[in-house]
Amino acid sequence: MAVATVAVDLPTATIVWVAFIIVWQRFEDYMIQPLVYGRTLRVNPIVTIVSVLAGAALLSILGALLAIPTAAAIQIMLRHWWANRQHPDSNAQSLPRNPPEDRLKAPRRQTQRGLNR
Which of 9, 12, 61, 107 has its CA 20 to 30 A from that of 94? Predict the structure, then answer.
């Protein structure tokens, strides 16, 4: 495409074309691509865009590439932690009611009346 602009109007058309490609590339890299990856990985779009911007600021291109998978991994860990967290009061309820040595004993036999011997 750039070769076609050289034949039409060398400096003006080529400069406009290059500027358009740079602007489009930035728009796609920072807006469209994070939204697509965010939907695919089920990450909030705002988290995706912020993570790409932060990753790009910290580690340049490598940071931008690693930002979305890192944000997805952190979100998965936080969702898992949030779903499996226990309150201090509920910890006592999750403990077994009988001590382990009581479970190892043979069960009591029942009589015809249903009473334990």
Answer: 107
DSSP helix/strand/coil, 110: strand
Q: How many residues does the chain have?
A: 117
From CA 76, how far away is CA 70, in angstroms rounded? 10
Which residue type does 31 have?
Answer: M
Rounded CA gap, 71 and 48, in Å? 7
Tell me: the pLDDT tens digits for 15-46?
A: 888 899 999 988 887 778 777 877 777 787 78
Q: What kind and span of H or E run contains 9?
A: none
Per DSSP, 105 falls in state S
Query: How distant is the alpha carbon of residue 64 from its chain centre?
Result: 15
Asked if residue 48 lies in contact with residue 38, where contact means CB atoms within 8 angstroms, the answer is yes
Report the DSSP beta bridge partners of residue 110: 116
CB 117 within 8 A of CB 109: yes
